[in-house]
Amino acid sequence: MFETLGSLTASPWIYALVAVSIVLDVFLPVLPSGVLVITAAAAAAAAAGTAGTVPVPVPEQVPDILLLLVIATTASVLGDMAAFRLARHGGARLDRAIARSRRLTRAQERLGTALARGGGALVVIARFAPAGRSVVSLGAGKTQRKVAEFLPWSVLAGMAWAGYSVALGYFGTRWLGTQWLGTAVSIVALFAAGALAAFLVRRPPSAAAATPAA
């Protein structure tokens, strides 16, 4: 698997592949967009010539780390807004599809007040959770939130997720000294962040205030 992904990072099409994967995984959360970003960032780290003190052989063409960060962030926001617009103008057919999903129904109930009261941090946290981006983007559109309420948080979420993923791949390879090991450890760290984010998103918002008074 790592050999296949590694060969993709040496192709000029890696940027397009990363962008398309990130845009579409709001509709198809099974797409490995985070894995692609980490692998590309790891290749960029290897291109620095050394990881720590150990020489690392690299292909002739590798991703540019800053361009990768910009593309990942931009694609994340574009995907969010596409889902947001679709849910906002989706009509009765989309309404029925959302109603069949317990997670999306719950999002409708929570996001309306959360986003209106400045609780858009939920958008940032959910960006790391499996399918959380889909739930939040579709839920925000379905509850008829204004673009001005949702877009800034989507941008912040995209920057946080892209920055975290790129940093994992880049510094993981630099510190561990081997591209495949840095990629593997970084992917595990990405999944760990996703598990934590899923826990935070699913936790009832009033959990902290549920302690009974003495």
TrEMBL record:
Subcellular location(s) of the protein: Cell membrane
Membrane topology: Multi-pass membrane protein
Coiled coil: none
Organism whose genome encodes this protein: Streptomyces virginiae (Streptomyces cinnamonensis)
Keyword Ribosomal protein: no
InterPro entries: DedA-like (IPR032818), VTT_dom (IPR032816)
Protein name, as recorded: Membrane protein
Family statement drawn from the similarity comment of this UniProt entry: Belongs to the DedA family.
Domain named VTT: residues: 42-170
Major localization listed first in the record, in broad terms: membrane
Transmembrane parts of this sequence: 12-28, 35-53, 65-87, 150-173, 179-201
Keywords: Cell membrane, Membrane, Transmembrane, Transmembrane helix
